[in-house]
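look at this stuff:

>
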Amino acid sequence: MNGLYALKPWYADRLSGVRGALARREVSPDTLTAAGVLCAAGAAAALAWLPTPIAALPVAVLLAARLAFANLDGALARDTGRTTRRGALLNELGDRAADLVMLAGFLALTPLWLVATAGLAATLPSWVSLAGAAAGAPRLNGGPVGKTERCALVVLAAASGWVVPVLAVIAAGSALTAGLRCARLWRQLGTSAPAAGGVR
């Protein structure tokens, strides 16, 4: 079920030198969160304004940077002892904003209802995971269509022009991912004591 998320430890290891340099320069993790959103916005602009397949390279580079920043912000906070509840909130909001901003690039290419459907579906896996974490379960991540897969699908759309099929896969795959996470959490929490405020 983890999909491309299974590569995260390998990817984090590749970024360890960058993390060290950022720590030495006392870069704020919140700055990296904001940079990830800006990279997603740049990818959206390239997708909207550049023709296929010319858009593929800048979209791929900017979304790779978006994923790198998403990996680096939390890791840098942990490495430097700067983890805070506000930082955790900003990290979650930044991830959701980056996803939605990225998909907004399709507004120039296809009807609003399709982009809105894909955008809504793309947020569902994270909301399910956050609800599970609030109930005391481990945070679930990964695919089959998680954050990394959505970025890869957007690059595919930029390279091929298959806008409608890609958005349909993002919508259906994200909904499936949310459903699978929900089922897994339901099993995990079935015999657990209820969290405060979650009485049934």
About this structure: Residues 163-189 form the longest helix (27 residues).
